[in-house]
Design a protein that fits this description.
Elements (H helix, E strand, L loop, with lengths): L9 H14 L5 E4 L5 H10 L10 E4 L3 E5 L9 H10 L2 H11 L6 E2 L7 E5 L4 E6 L10 E9 L12 E4 L6 E5 L5 E6 L5 E4 L11 E10 L17 E2 L13 H6 L4 H11 L1
């Protein structure tokens, strides 16, 4: 069996990097290159479907985002992908996340991959800067952590598609992360962790930006992570300087500003 993780001890890696994680600017995050066993990750990439041609995939298209994702559950996950995501929700990997992030509340994975799972962005696609919805739409647990794994070989700077990290006042982009193959990015999700892929992807038509997203939750969180004790369960999008994507929104765009992603597909069917 091909090992998924290439090194021996995740906890040692977490202990070594936890201070770096906490001191990161503009908010706690870390990225690792060449993180997983490359041979295994190639198998996952080989299984990655073209989500734009999948009947039940979720297509978000409007002023704030243009992308495709897998639906709730694991129906789009083939053998190796299912093993991979199972590992990312395993005790060993969650212990690693707990250690490196120093989050005190026990982290809880989402086996339904609501909003997570497989993500694909074609040429022209984007995801405007935002903070993530704060509550799981089914369990109502607090969303605490994002883990993103990129599957893009030979991804060039001119293709755009960078994950961008902004300060809480949306004045400075402190980090732009190229979504290159076998890179993992881990970061806290609070009311102040603004991030996105705001510039249109410029890869060739035959090439897609591919990633896998995992979200982790807890039962309770520090109030310092919230703007208000009245938590807003929706994704909150923010315009960068000079952007006007909140202007002249159509009916679907207005819904997307206030409804968690997993519920959008239901609303879209209702509107038809």
């Amino acid at each position: 069996m091909i090992p998924i993780y290439k090194k021996n001890n995740l906890i040692d890696l977490a202990i070594k990097n936890k201070e770096k994680y906490q001191k990161a600017i503009p908010f706690p995050y870390i990225e690792f290159e060449d993180f997983f066993n490359e041979e295994f990750l190639n198998l996952v990439l080989d299984e990655f479907p073209d989500l734009s041609n999948m009947k039940d995939s979720l297509h978000y298209s409007g002023a704030t985002d243009e992308k495709h994702t897998s639906p709730r559950g694991d129906s789009f996950q083939m053998e190796n992908t299912k093993k991979f995501l199972s590992y990312l929700n395993s005790s060993a990997f969650i212990d690693f996340l707990q250690e490196i992030t120093s989050i005190k509340e026990p982290l809880i994975p989402d086996p339904h991959f609501i909003g997570g799972g497989l993500h694909q962005t074609k040429r022209g696609g984007f995801l405007k800067v935002h903070t993530d919805y704060s509550k799981h739409p089914e369990t109502y647990l607090d969303r605490r952590l994002n883990v993103l794994i990129y599957l893009n070989k030979n991804w060039k700077e001119e293709y755009n598609g960078h994950l961008t990290l902004y300060d809480k006042d949306m004045k400075i982009c402190h980090k732009k992360i190229l979504p290159s193959f076998n890179k993992i990015v881990i970061f806290n999700t609070t009311d102040f962790t603004f991030h996105g892929v705001p510039d249109p992807v410029l890869c060739p038509e035959s090439c897609y930006r591919k990633s896998i997203a995992l979200y982790y939750f807890s039962n309770g969180r520090p109030v310092s992570e919230l703007r208000s004790i009245l938590q807003n369960p929706s994704t909150i999008y923010k315009e960068r300087k000079g952007e006007v994507f909140n202007k002249n929104l159509n009916k679907k765009d207005l819904i997307k500003l206030f409804i968690p992603p997993i519920l959008l597909n239901i609303f879209y069917r209702f509107l038809k």
